[in-house]
Amino acid sequence: MTELSNNYFVCVAEIAAKLDQATRIAQQLSLTASNARAVALRAGERAAGFRPLTDFIDRLAEITIKSSRSINLLAATLSQTSADKVRADSAIEHFNIVFIKAKDSQFIGSLDEVYLRCQTKQQQLEKSYKRQIDRLSDELIMLSNELRNAVILATLSRVEASQAGIEYQDALINVANNVEGAASKIKEHINYSQQMVSTLEEY
Amino acid sequence: MKTHKLFENKSHTWLMFGRDDEKPNEIIDTNQYIVITHKNALLMDPGGIELFSSMLAAVIKQLPADKITHLFASHQDPDIISSLGLWDQALPSATLHSPWIWESFIRHFGMHNISYSAIPDEGSTLKIDQVSLDFIPAHYLHSSGNFNVYDAEAKILMSGDIGAALESVEAPLFVEDFDEHIAKMKMFHQRWMPSNEAKNYWVRRVRKLDIDMMCPQHGRIFKGDDVKRFLDWFEALEVGIISKAAADV
Ligand SMILES: [Fe+2]
Ligand SMILES: [Fe+2]
Question: What does the pLDDT read at residue A6?
């Protein structure tokens, strides 16, 4: 039990850490968007098609940051629930030993109420634990879907870049590459977190 | 875990729990004490988390759990009170009496239900049913906020780490030969107690009390003349010696 408990603490902490990294990458993405905007402005009419794309990049960064923040918050709540659950589990375990050691005691019944209360608490924690994991899982799926748009975005960016003229082409293609790179890195972190969540679901 | 009755009269009973032969070897053996009055009980220095189950099992053989309405922790050490998080589940409406300076530290052991009653530096008196128990200041012996429990009626002083001895779980409950016992206490007092001044204050104060039994948290109980022998020995002992020894290296 203790080993499992330790593991789920580690899992939750790892999810929070991964999402933290995702947030940092998203912040870079937001920088990329303002770079792209500057380049597109200099390129003038020829890069007109690129401008709406920078808004999309911005939006993607914003969604990732927001979603990471709420996942982080969920992970923190989950960590607290895990701690409470470990405490409740431990109390139950200790009481079980007492019931064996003092089974013939005339006062053993005086523990019944306490035991029942601990059990109820344990079940409640179990429920909120499951609920929080479900929410975490949903949130990760949402973010993951959102990131799929990044691939389309990068392709579109490349098309637009080729029309911006030789002078700006490289800079704009660079923007497209950055978007793709950032999205795939964030995706990696999300995938890892999803694996962690499925481990948590088994407990 | 063994249970031993130390005192009994119409109003209350003193029990000692200890010599736990099921405890892991690396853990110091501890003595727990309880005062049981008509409707309530005070459990003193309830011990570490590792022996909680044994303790609660031993207690439940003597009285119903919910009769324990008061807990006392002489100071913040893990061997004294690290079981608090579990007692907090077992006795949700109990009150813990402990030095005010340790409240924010002791709460780290997990205290969501039990309430904390902070003992002021000068000590205080707890009345449970008809019984008065005095929290006698014993600061710096060894903890910087530390109390003994004195029962004037039973003439018992629960002295916490003062008088402690490092012994095996087979050791008898009472000191039989004081001079022989010194070897088991000397290092403990010299190393854990930091202040000669604090020690001498305490000796002076405790000499004025009428004591039949002095009950430490580790080792054996001092009875009758051995109490006075202990006070004489302790007064003459130089404590806090490690700081000098370490500086001389
Ligand atoms: Fe101590
Ligand atoms: Fe101790």
Answer: 53
